[in-house]
Design brief:
With 337 residues, the chain is of the alpha/beta class. The chain contains 13 helices and twelve strands. The chain has a six-stranded parallel beta sheet with strand order 3-2-1-4-5-6, with helices on both faces.
């Protein structure tokens, strides 16, 4: 990170700070923002976390989650907080359109903007940037940020629990994007008192009955396996969302179920939303779904986990996806994980 000394100087005096992350915030979005919040508050700053839309219920246990401002619910409060801010941290996203209307508010503001992110191709809107596509998560980068500020003694249990949760969820419980550095970092967090079993239970063992019934429905009625492309697809319609009362976070992890099949290299989840059709892509080994998301579905992400969207409806989106598979057939068939 360039000019870290300048940013450290800015942070040496108490300021109004807002931390924000992307729409449909996941464990890393909430973990990284709350972790940084707990650190900055120790420096005397007034800190608010604001995100475009609500977060999954299984993250509601996290310290400080009850104070998060949701733009969809608290538009005026979020707007006032952003306009009052001396510094805005943009976390776990690479362009302002990832935070929808909040981005339109932030863009013209004269305050200092800081980007902390691990996604590809960040747009040049921030004054200070900590960006690393090899990082497992933005939570890992927050730990790096605190280390760069030479302030790791302020990583207390609240900070540690939040960062651990972000790393845990973005690595799929340490299955993806790991490194020796990540495991050393996690070891440090555990030594600070993080209860791994407790957090794993909160994150992965908090399903309701409807979640398991939904999973059964998806695997039995909505899964299609394309063996010739080593690809599996699941789809959910608007009627599925209504029948199973699917709420934000209820479909978390569904697409990963498909990768449990031995010969499947790419897993795809396509689902209807009120105005768009969303597509989530996951892969094994060296096969990159990021290119597919970017080239064909206005999206992006990481090599093994990306997403995008279309405006053409569910069935046409599924047909479009299938139509591009021949382009990637050789790479899919030759992937040995």
């Amino acid at each position: 990170m360039e000019n870290i000394k300048d940013l450290k100087s800015l942070l040496s005096v108490p300021k109004d700070i807002v931390l924000t992350s992307h729409r449909n915030p996941d464990g890393d979005a909430i973990g990284s923002t709350l972790g940084l919040r707990h650190y900055l508050e120790q420096l005397g700053h007034t800190v608010k976390v604001a995100v475009p839309s609500d977060f999954p219920g299984f993250l509601g246990w996290m310290p400080g989650s009850q104070d998060i401002l949701i733009y969809d619910i608290d538009k005026e409060d979020v707007k006032q907080a952003l306009e009052k801010a001396d510094i805005i941290f943009c976390m776990d996203f690479n362009s302002l359109d990832r935070i929808d209307k909040m981005g339109e508010i932030i863009e013209p503001l004269k305050c200092v903007k800081v980007l902390i992110d691990h996604h590809l191709y960040p747009e040049p809107f921030a004054d200070y940037v900590l960006h690393d596509t090899t990082a497992s998560s933005t939570s890992e980068l927050v730990h790096d940020f605190i280390r760069l500020l030479e302030d790791t003694e302020k990583i207390d249990l609240n900070v540690a629990e939040c960062l651990y949760t972000g790393i845990l969820t973005d690595t799929g419980s340490f299955k993806y994007s790991t490194s020796p550095k990540v495991f050393r970092m996690v070891g440090d967090l555990l030594e600070l008192g993080v209860d791994d079993n407790r957090i794993q239970n909160y994150v992965f063992n908090s399903l309701e009955e409807k979640h398991l019934r939904l999973m059964g429905h998806v695997l039995n009625n909505r899964m299609e396996v394309l063996h010739e492309y080593r690809t599996a697809i699941i789809c959910l319609t608007k009627k599925d969302y209504e029948y199973y009362n699917i709420q934000r976070g209820d479909t978390e992890g569904l697409v990963n179920q498909l990768l449990q099949m031995r010969d499947i290299v790419m897993a795809v989840f396509i689902h209807e939303q009120p105005t768009i059709t969303k597509i989530s892509l996951r892969s094994k080994g060296e096969f990159s779904v990021q290119e597919i998301a970017k080239k064909h579905f206005r999206g992006g992400g990481h090599k093994n986990a990306s997403g995008g969207y279309s405006f053409i409806g569910l069935r046409p989106t599924v047909s479009k996806f299938k139509s591009i598979l021949p382009e990637y057939k050789e790479a899919l068939l030759n992937n040995d994980f």
